[in-house]
Specification:
43% of the residues lie in helices and 0% in strands. The chain has two helices and no strands. The termini are far apart.
């Protein structure tokens, strides 16, 4: 998908290609949500994770729940 805004007919086409036929009154809402998701993903792609290790490198310790007051 390009950076141009997704149009209502394009939203309907992509939904139909995915096997999700949309009623006409949903085209604008789906196009708006898809555009928002696209803009969020674009921002995430710009982040520099440089020295950040992959998730398996982190170990979480179990929390000690103590209900005593």
């Amino acid at each position: 998908m390009s950076t141009a805004d997704l149009t209502r007919p394009e939203a309907a086409l992509w939904a139909a290609r995915a096997g999700l036929p949309l009623p006409a009154d949903r085209h604008a809402a789906v196009a708006a949500v898809a555009q928002h998701i696209h803009s969020v993903v674009a921002v995430l792609r710009e982040l520099d994770f440089g020295d950040t290790p992959p998730a398996p490198a982190y170990r979480t310790e179990p929390e000690n729940h103590d209900a005593a007051v």
